[in-house]
Amino acid sequence: MNDIPEIMKIVITGAAGLLGHGLVMVMGKRHEVFRLTRSDADITSTEQVRAAIGSIKPDLVVHPAGIPDLDICESDPAEAFLVNYHGTRNVVDAAREVGASLAYISTDAVFDGKKTEPYTESDATIPPTVYGRTKLRGEQIVKTLPAHWIFRVSVLFGPGKTNFIEKGLKKLAAGESYPVASDQIGSATYTLDAAAKIMEVIEARKYGLYHLSNDGACSRYELAVKAAEYAGLDPKGITGKPDAEMGRRTPRLRYAVMAMAALTQAGFSPPRRWEEALAEYVRTLRFE
Ligand SMILES: NC(=O)c1ccc[n+]([C@@H]2O[C@H](COP(=O)([O-])OP(=O)(O)OC[C@H]3O[C@@H](n4cnc5c(N)ncnc54)[C@H](OP(=O)(O)O)[C@@H]3O)[C@@H](O)[C@H]2O)c1
To answer: How many angstroms separate the CA atoms of 188 and 250, rounded?
Structure first.
């Protein structure tokens, strides 16, 4: 295993993305963080990734870069595999070359969505979507590194990039209505809480696979309605609809709640309840 110093040199891929932004904000307070965006290195280019990571020689690479959109992945599987799998392989190879450990951001979409109780880290991974399959292949390549972490997160909200919650609230504030799936149950993840927990686990050098979200479960509809309530907006413009009527290319998992068994077993407390995190996030938004 790598010898990691107290103050680490950390490369964060996808640093302009939603989770990347949160990771930079949180990890940058304690460590020397290097933001890697697409303009610094396209992760599908072995040479660009090797040059960028090779010139920094980090102790750790945190890798959230990828294509998280299920419909984009489904409509262009070759591009999805190129970015989410081959891109991850390039990042893994570059980390290996400089002796860095690596933390990969994965997803609840590696599961089939057929369970009726929370998925644990030891549950079988049978992704029904292209996106889920590309992310699972990413996990497999990350596991070839001796010093690695895999954090499976679920629907993300947080500062730095417009997301599902903010878009919905802006519509409500403008007097528009919009539909949200009422039969898609999952966990929700505040990027700043996830980033803080990722840093805590990494600093403790407890390698492995972790489910990571805010505590509790909700439908996307409940999430949107709660956000409206916290923002002081009338939620009646939000219509709960079955996922099948949402007109989306890729059916979403009906049930994708994640149990944070590995975190608890390793002695970490799970992040706070999703309602509390959502309320804090919504207080930071402005709708004028
Ligand atoms: N969003 C969710 O609800 C969710 C749920 C579960 C898991 N996850 C996982 O969490 C991770 C982060 O998600 P996110 O929502 O933060 O995604 P995001 O906002 O789309 O950020 C991903 C970043 O990756 C970058 N990227 C994409 N292709 C690239 C390439 N070829 N070379 C270099 N950079 C590239 C994007 O750059 P550009 O800005 O230039 O496109 C973007 O900044 C993903 O790996 C995703 O699978 C997300």
So the answer is: 20
